[in-house]
């Protein structure tokens, strides 16, 4: 009983840390975009976490953990609407799991569910209509994410194939990243982003806020990865925190070095995205890696960020916050790295990882395209040119994040 209490308290702390990450995402997104769209981004982030939790309660949790029957295909299952805690002798069944209770399990996993849509929010910033975005979020978080999640974490077919994703390089980050890629392609670039085919810098309005956001996300990753041990077991938990931190540090340093060598300037935003790339990269195998492995994985992720951002620009895709490079490209790298480094490294494992990457690419690309294309041809997904130029805050929300204050003259 004492061990369960300790484990459960740790899991609840990690739940709080993952919740705190949503503040980090909000700060990062508004910091890297323009002042006139701040309210719009904050509104989307608040909508995602509130509606995401409700949807995960009503359908998501039981779609993601349906309890696939013996002989099932392991592709789709559903354990029923709402939450139904196991009860024994009129009280909560504490034998549900040695690491946490049923309620803690739901809340911890629910915090992960909203993250996928938050990734999309940053990529489509400054030009997507709020209504279609909310509809997309409801469908993607309510149905697509938990169905895809059940394939591994719910004991589905990828789990049986040996696919491994400790805390979500693919299940969370690339699920959001694939959706972001499709959404950015369907939306088109912001006005002024490309001039004569060449990318133009559209600078964010508050880089200190973006920096705070990254540091908050790094802190939140202690819960994201540390909680994915699913207990407070000292050896496993402490190793995961070490590998997570080292990968983040290596990702940041290498991104800064590579970008400096290529572009001859000390780019803070590239430094910041390198940290996030390292975090995403280590997430699939944080419990399997040595400190040296973690540094190598994070360093490669940091280099990947620089080249991925450049590639996305060359493809004329407009991603204001670098979400595709960070969450999709580094998510794929981190997932494949499980087959190359650490305790599970081997050719068979690498093929399992590759299979998982392909399966998630298929469901995410197809589902996102169907949802957004239908929205595009029915109600439109992009704001008018006038609304984009004048800012979404004014046109979609009727308010401003930073109203002008003037001293009364007497």
Give a topology summary.
Layout: H1 2-31, H2 38-64, E1 87-88, E2 91-92, H3 102-123, H4 130-150, H5 157-161, H6 169-187, E3 194-195, E4 198-199, H7 207-226, H8 234-263, H9 268-283, H10 291-314, H11 323-337, H12 347-378, H13 385-390, H14 392-397
Antiparallel strand pairs: 1-2, 3-4
Oligomer: single chain
Q: Whole-number radius of gyration?
A: 21 Å
| Percent of sequence in beta strands | under 5%
pLDDT average, as an integer?
A: 94
Classification by helices and strands: mainly alpha
How are the strands ordered across the major sheet? 1-2
The geometry reads as: globular
Query: In sequence order, what are the helices and strands, one letter per element?
Result: HHEEHHHHEEHHHHHHHH
Provide the low-confidence segments as ranges: 405-410
Distance between the termini: 69 Å
List how many beta strands DSSP finds. 4
Report the total helices: 14
Helix content: 55-70%
Characterize the largest beta sheet: strand count, sense, and whether it forms a barrel. Answer: 2 strands, antiparallel
What does the model show?
- It is a single chain.
- The chain is mainly alpha-helical.
- The protein contains 14 helices and four strands.
- It has helices at about 1-30, 40-65, 100-125, 130-150, 155-160, 170-185, 205-225, 235-265, 270-285, 290-315, 325-335, 345-380, 385-390, 390-395, and strands at about 85-90, 90, 195, 200.
- The chain has a two-stranded antiparallel ribbon with strand order 1-2. The chain has a two-stranded antiparallel sheet with strand order 3-4.
